[in-house]
Amino acid sequence: MTAVVPPAPTAGVHSLFETGPGTPAGKYLRSFWQPVKLSEDLPKGRVQPLRVMSEDFAIYRGSNGDAVVTQAGCPHRQTMLAIGNVEGDSIRCSFHGWKFGANGKCQEAPGQSPSLIDRMRIRTYPTHEQYGVVFAYFGEGEPPAFFDIEGFSKKHGHDMMSARVRGTATYRRHCNYYINVENALDLAHVAFTHKLSSDPTVTEVGFDPGVIRIRDVTVERLDFGVRAVEIEHEAEPVRSTVMLPNAMHLVVAQRDGFLEQVGWRVPIDDQLHYSIQITALHTSEEGAQRFREYEARRNELIAKYPPTDECAEAILRGVKTLYDFADHPDLVNIEDHVVQMGMQFINHLDRENLAQSDKAVLQLRRMFMSRLADFTAGAPAVKSDW
Q1: What is the b/e burial string over 46-72, where b = at least 16 CB atoms within 10 angstroms of the residue's CB?
Q2: Cβ–Cβ < 8 Å for 45, 88
Q3: N or C: which end of the chain has fewer CB within 10 A?
């Protein structure tokens, strides 16, 4: 299917949607740590290709357990290092055997002079691994302090590291990353987009049915982003925060307790992005047991279906409906896939008809554009307290 293509930037206004090398938003996002891989998906001794913000890289885990991100091509003939071989903590190109350490320095170049080996190196990027996620820094200079996710949860959530159920997840979505960033604050969509997954007569897991109603939203402008709060839910207010530029924090009621999640929407290119999230389910021991019993069947259920983005594509082509995926463990995600991949992004943002329910979205867009303009003018990226 055709991917969602973002609009061209208005004259004199920096685009939030274009994040390739040298673009204003691309430089801005590169000044923050970005998640690139779930820890469980990067085994020792394996190298994989990696594409982030329209740039290609290689990522591998050496024998010491450290994750290493490098430039895409070997400096000899630019063959992809991602098809090379991991040797100890180093990567060897599969074309002519040039070998580079985790610090980027050339260690071996068969048949070449010692002087070439001494001067040859590849670019490597700082990495940080925590909470089951590998992060990388693609900006210039020293990376910023790493996020205090645990402290942020204690201050703005419910101490997600002490939750009875915790995990990580990732997915890929065929639309521009910023569509999904804004969606985190669009709480008005929940009553309609997630109507099926919140119906306990049809689905086994999903949102608490109590969130499926339209309520007023309180919008808070914070130093690090924007928060939307629905204050009328009996058990737990729905709270969703975007931490600029592309992270989010969500607290929402589930059928067993409530979900707390920290996630990032990371561009692969301007028409495709992935999400990586750290998730906690705050529930009773009985609720945790029910969740674990369901998880035991989860893989069997998922195996029935193609990836979630392909499920959404089938719905958008009209060959499937959401009801065909009613028992899918990621139905909530498929629902979001459908509406976001189905957005026909227009050429001019002023053709949108933003209304009262979009006040958080509008606040975020204004704040993002302001921060991006300041950053482009030479101001340092505003570092959050999280």
Answers
A1: ebeebebbbbebbbbbbeeeebbbbbb
A2: no
A3: N
Which helix (H) or strand (E) segment is 363 a member of?
A: helix 359-376
Q: Contact, 246 vs 128, CB < 8 A?
A: no
pLDDT tens digits, 307-329: 999 999 999 999 999 999 999 99
Q: Euclidean distance between the first and final Cα of the chain, in Å?
A: 38
Q: Which residues of 115-136 are buried (b: 16+ CB within 10 A; e: fewer)?
A: eebeebebebbebebebebbbb
pLDDT tens, position by position, 36-47: 999 999 999 999
What pLDDT, on the 0 to 100 scale, is given for residue 12? Answer: 54
Amino acid found at 255: R
In this model, does residue 178 exceed pLDDT 90? yes
Distance, CA of 348 to CA of 6 (rounded, Å): 10
**Residue 386: predicted pLDDT:** 73
| Residue 207 CA to its chain's centroid (Å) | 21
Q: Which residues of 275-301 are buried (b: 16+ CB within 10 A; e: fewer)?
A: bbbbbbbbbeeebbebbeeeeeeeeee
